[in-house]
Structures are given as C-alpha cells and as structure tokens.
Please model this.
Amino acid sequence: MAEVVCLGILVADVYGRPIDEWPEWDRLSFVEEMGIGLGGCAANTGLALVKLGVDTAVMGKVGDDGFGRLVRQAIADGGADATAVVVDSDARTSATMVMINSAGERAFLHHYGANAKVTVQDVDMSLAEGAKIFHCGGALLMPGFDGEPMAQVLEAAAAQGATTSLDTAWDPRGLWMDTLAPCLEHTHLFLPSLAEAQELTGRKAPAEVAEALLDLGIEVVALKMGPEGSYVARGDQAFQVPAYEVQVIDGTGAGDAYVAGFLRAHLEGWDLERAAKFANAVGALCTTGLGTTAGVRAYQETIEFLKQREPDYWDAG
Model:
C-alpha cells in the first residue's frame, strides 16, 4: 500500500536546450539536445518520492494516444503505482514544450489536454486508504477539478487520516484565490512557489505571504524560491533556508523535487528547518540532470550531499 498518493497533472514534456533565441519564421536552428520525457507536478513529485525510497501511487488522467502511453509507462518504469491513471479516449494527453536556455532557465508552451477533464469521479479514494500523505500537485491547471471538487477530495483524504498536501501551478487565467480558497481549509502542508503565493495573497515579502496563508488555517507553509532557497513557516516558527549551489543543467521539475523532499522529511517527522534543508537539497540536485527527475538522488545519496555541505549539522543529527 502506498505511503504517499500523488494526484494531479500528468504531462508529456518535449524539451530542447540550449535555446537562447528564437529562429526566424520559416528558418531552421539547431539545439544540442532534444527529447521527450515525463512531466506534470503529480508525476514529477511521485517519481522523485520513489527515488527517495517512498512507496508512491500516482493518479491523474491521460488521453488514449502516444503521449498517454508514454506517461503511463514512464510512471510504472519509475517504480510508482500507475493503476489509478485514467485513460480518456475523448481527450488528448496534456503536453508541454520546454525551452531551456544556456543558464538552465525555462519557458513553457502548454496544452491542457486531459488534465482539464479530471473530475472527482476519476479519483480512486480506495488507493488513499492507509496512505500517510495525500498530495495534490498542479492545482489551478485542472479546470474541471480545481476549487470545490478538489476541496471535497482533500477533505475525504484528511478524514481517512492522511496528511494533506497541496502544490500549485501558475494560473494563466488569473483566478488564483477565487479558485483555490475552498481547498486551503483542508490543507495541512502548502508548498507553492513564492510567485504563485504572492498572486494568491496579494502580498510580496515572503514573511507576509506565509503569515497570510497560515491565517487561513494551513498548518505548514513552504514557499519555493529557486536560487534564494525556501521560506518555511508553522505557528510561531518562520525562517528562510538558503539554497545549495550546484552546477545547473536544467531547472525543470526542481520545484516538484523540493515538494518530494519536504514530504519525505515529513514522513521522517523532522523539524521544520531540517525538512526545508533536505527539500532544498533534493530540489538543487534535480537541476543537475536533464529532465524532471534525472538529477534526483536516492535518499542516502542526498544525505551524503548534505553532510558534505554542512557536516556539523547533518552529522550531529
């Protein structure tokens, strides 16, 4: 039985690097690398958790097409339970074109696809029975499920004894809190990017953003801040944890890897600072590989990385 269930967006990524400028229309340019891989918050976080040694199930929806078969096979090959991934013959699998520049920064072109058709009826709650964490990844990119339907599922998962976790994506529709508000009262761990949380709260400084979210009843807030690390808050605890410097190849999936690291730390029962440091390390290491999870290391390898960077802290723990 899965310790963690990851429900949310599943995406086929088509990526290329380095792309530092656009070719002229009707002209051809070359890139050094191009490929097709697995993407989407639920899939990325799920497979990162597997790498960290966590028994994980992934739920979501794909189309009955080549991208859909690729996504389901990649989840299964990555070691996660993919039996609850729904195949919709009337939808195309969600896909993203990921353009990566020489610095590892990314720009995206996204097709909603089957993610837009996820409904409450697609969620197999029996898979969540006994799960320690129920995570929703990619909120705000599932228009058929965002809002009250997602809140209903989170409430049911919490009633079954799971810790509920929620991660957002950028909302191109600009609806933000109008959509997400019903979900937050049923969320124990909230792990958005700082930019997304700023849009949700209307605040700018990380401390003010976190305070506004905690005031809504969320237990723990972890704001992903890329090269600035993360800002975490719970009750009267709040602090920023610096990022770890690594040689960045591709930042794709780093935020989802951070989430996986934070959830793994939560399963360990670690304090907030230790959890944030571990999550920062998982996210940083993710950027050292091309694609969403290639750079993620196993649990013990991640601990060894941390011991090299902060031996006094991690050897003492």
Q: What stands out?
A: DSSP finds ten helices and 13 strands in the chain. The chain has a mean pLDDT of 95. The first strand starts at residue 4 and ends at 8.
